[in-house]
Specification:
With about 70 residues, the chain is mostly helical. It has one domain. Helix content is about 55%, strand content about 0%. It contains 3 helices and no strands. The chain has helices at about 15-25, 40-45, 45-70. The chain is flat. About 0% of the residues are buried.
């Protein structure tokens, strides 16, 4: 079985219907509604710095997984 993570943008009024649809058709492990952080990104240098560090760590984790995951199959 594969685990897939997707991010989609929907109008607010369609979120509940989409969630119901997806849960009827697949096993949902996690469902999150992400906050809109665009204005925060545009105006807050601390937030920008935090997000940039997070991206660096995510890349490091992904590289480690790609380099080592075959050891655990």
């Amino acid at each position: 079985m594969e685990t897939i993570n997707i991010t989609v943008k929907l109008p607010e009024h369609q979120v509940v219907k989409f969630q119901q649809f997806i849960e009827e058709h697949v096993k949902v492990l996690d469902f999150k509604i992400l906050p809109d952080t665009q204005k925060m990104w545009d105006e807050d240098e601390v937030f920008q710095s935090i997000v940039k560090e997070q991206k660096k760590h995510n890349k490091l984790v992904s590289k480690y997984i790609n380099d080592n995951n075959n050891k655990y199959k």
